[in-house]
Amino acid sequence: MGSFAEVSSLPDRPKDACGVFGITVGGAPPDNPPRPITVGGPSQQRPVAHLVFDGLYALQHRGQESAGMAVSDGETLTVVRDMGLVTNVFDERVLSGLPGNLAIGHTRYSTTGSSSWRNAQPVYRSAATVELALGHNGNLINTAALAAGAGMLPGVLTTDSDLMAELIARELEAQSPAGPGDDRGELERALTTVLPTWEGAFSLVCMDSTHLFGVRDPQGFRPLCLGRLGEGWALASETPALDVVGATVVRELDPGEMVVIEHGAVRSVRPFPASRIDPHFCIFEMVYFARPDAQLCGSEVHGARRRMGEALAEVAPVDADLVMGVPESGVPAAEGYARRSGIPYGQGLVKNRYIGRTFIVPGQEARAAGVRRKLNPLRENIAGKRLVVVDDSVVRGTTQRETARMLREAGATEIHLRVSSPPFTWPCYFGIDTPSRAELLAATHSMEEMREHLGVDSIAFLSLEALEKAIGTPGSTFCSACLTGHYPLAVPDA
Fold this sequence. Notes:
The chain is α+β, with helices and mostly antiparallel strands. The protein is 29% helix and 24% strand. The protein has 17 helices and 25 strands. β3 and β4 form a beta hairpin. Mean pLDDT is 88; it is low at 2-10, 29-44 and 357-363.
C-alpha cells in the first residue's frame, strides 16, 4: 500500500506490503444471531475479535508497523487501529469491547508510504446508507490517473488503500437503485463497477455491516486464501492464519476473482473482463515472504525452499565442512543444500527473536549495526571451518557483508555464499519495498565485484529456470520482474 509521494527508509531485504484477514462466524441472518463459534473444544468459545487477533498474529511477518480491525455487530462497524505490533494495539480490554459476528483485520508494512497512524488500516468510509471498511495488500500503479479522474487534489489522500475506499464510497453515493432482477447489495454493485478501473497488485478484504468480500487482482500478484470455520468463513493472506483459528483451508482465490460471503454462503464473482486475467504470482512469496508452513500454489513453502537448496547444491557445489542458513528464511534452502551435497548441516548464527523482519534504519552504518543486533555467531561451530552460507536473496548486500565479517571474526577459514534465487536487479512496483535500481548490488556489480564487496570466497545464485522448477507447481506463471526487468503490466515512468 503505497503513498503518492512519500518515500520510506529502505531496507536491505525486499519487504512485503501487508497481511489481511477476514472472518464471519455465523450462518444466520442478522435478525437471528448466530451461535458462538467454538474453537478447540466446548469450553473455548472465541468471539470474532479474538479470532481476528489470532489471524493477524499469524500474519505479522508480513507487517509489523501497525495493526487494526473492523468489527460489525450486524448494524454498525467499529474500527480500531494503531501503530505497533498486534499485541501492542490489542489487549483483552480492547478486544472485549468489539462484539460482532463479522470482521476484517490488517497488519501493515509500508512500501512507499510513510509509517504513520493516518496510514494504518482498515480504511473506513460511510457513504449513502453503507458503512465500509477495507484492508489491502499490494500496490496500485495507476493511482495518479484514478485520483485525477475523480477530481482529487494531489496529496489529499496519502495511500492507494485510502484512494480505493474513497472511490468505492463515491460510487456508493452516485449509483442508481438496483434494476429489476438485480439482488446484489449496494457494496457489491459498487465494487463490481470500481474494481475494473484499478491496475496493479491488490489482494484485499472488504466489508459492510453484513457482507464480507475478498478480492484478488487479475494478475494474482499477492496471495489470498479461503477457509471454512464451522458455519462461517475466513479469508487470509496465508493459510497459517486459517490454521490458527481452526479453519479448514478450502482454496486460494483465483486471479481476478471476488468472493461474496453472506449468511453463511459464498458466491464467486468475476468483475474483471476475461482479457485482463493474466496470472503472475509473485515468485518472492515462495522465496522469502511467506511463512514456511504456508500452502501456496498447491505447494508447501518449506518444501519448495528446501528444493531450491537442493538445486543450488547441484549447480554450485563446493568443498566445505558445514552448511548453514542465514536465519530464518535461508534455513530451509540450507537444509536442502546439505541433504543433496552430503556436507553436514549445522547452525552458525543465532537470531535475536526480539528484532522483527521490518527492522529498518536509514544509513549504511546503521544498517550494518542492525545486522549485528539481529545475528550473532556460534563460534564453536564456525572456528576452523569452511562454510557454505545459504541465503534467500541479495538486495543491497549489507546483511551478507556483515554476516561474512562476523563469521571471519569467529574463525571461519572459507565462506562460500549460495543464494536460492537469481540476482535481484530491478525494483518492484507491485507491493514490495525495494531500493532503486542504482542501489541494488547485483544491478551495479559483476559477480566478481559482488564477491569481493561481500568478502566471501565464492558466490553463486540459483537460475530462474531452476527456481521455478524447484517451486514445482506445473501451470503456474510467476512475476519475476525484480529478477528479469520484464514487468507483466506497464509501469508508469514516474
